[in-house]
Amino acid sequence: MLSAKELMQLEDFLTNEQTCIKTLNHFASQIQDSQAKQLVQQLVQKNQQNFQSISKHLNAGQKLQ
């Protein structure tokens, strides 16, 4: 099982991921160059996957490896 400190760190990570996703989405909406926009959108998708993966493990109460 995860310690209270580890859980707090993971919650901080999730908060940071959400902030990053919002920031990247904002940047993507402002970018005119299609290649740069696509790259930023890929970063958004990767961060969303990370967020969902960690959230899934925390919500299921599973031990992260």
Overview of the structural elements:
The radius of gyration is 15 Å and the shape is elongated. It contains 2 helices and no strands. The model has no long low-confidence stretch (mean pLDDT 90). It is an all-alpha fold and 65 residues long.
What's the structural blueprint in terms of helices and strands?
Blueprint: H1 4-30, H2 34-60
Helix pairs in contact: 1-2
| H-E string | HH
Tell me the β content.
under 5%
| Overall geometry | elongated
Helical content, roughly? Answer: over 70%
Q: Which segments are poorly predicted (pLDDT under 50) over 5 or more consecutive residues? A: none
Major β-sheet annotation: none
Number of strands: 0
Please state the average pLDDT score: 90
What is the number of helical segments per DSSP (H or I, 4+ residues)? 2
Distance between the termini: 10 Å
Radius of gyration: 15 Å
Class inferred from helices and paired strands = mainly alpha
Keywords:
mainly alpha, 65 residues
Condensed summary:
This protein is mostly helical. It is 83% helix and 0% strand. The protein is elongated.
